[in-house]
Hints:
The protein has helices spanning 25-34, 47-55, 90-99, 110-115, 145-161, 170-178; strands spanning 14-17, 20-23, 39-43, 78-82, 105-109, 136-138. By secondary structure, the chain is α/β, with parallel strands linked by helices.
Amino acid sequence: MSDSKVNMVAPPEGVVGEGFFATKLNDVVGLARANSLWPLPFATSCCGIEFMATMASHYDLARFGSERVSFSPRQADMLLVMGTISKKMGPILRQVYEQMAEPRWVIAVGACASSGGIFDTYSVLQGIDKIIPVDVYVPGCPPRPEQIVDGVMRLQDLVKSESVRRRSSPEYQELLASYNIS
Length: 182
Ligand code: SF4
């Protein structure tokens, strides 16, 4: 029988008194979102294999509330792009991103997704941020599962601190407009 201890996520900062706890709505929503990110793996080559190891029992991404992998963009909020993305594949990746509901976040896993990697050729997209906004870049060719887990944790930090109103802010609208996404 396993003797592993279950760790609870720490509550957000707030005011505690007898029988009550008061905090900010932003913090509660951020905490809930950060610990229930549903991944959508968009894997085209070798980095996808590292993600399989990340999901398996040894690294176990489920520890971060991300056990529910979705292959439907409509039921996922964390897009993980893993592998070489050819220019021909670009519009499909973009369509997948557009089908995701807000709030949605993107992790570019590995050198290929982040920058084209070693494939500095006419047919390979030199980084997915040419077509969709990216929140976290995971370096490596391939990145080890620890690095992918670290990337998810960095994204959790971002999600925890994101205001619930960010998606309707002029800055966010401007970002999407710069990608020609409405
Ligand atoms: S970054 Fe390296 S390991 Fe990952 S898809 Fe590209 S070539 Fe393969």
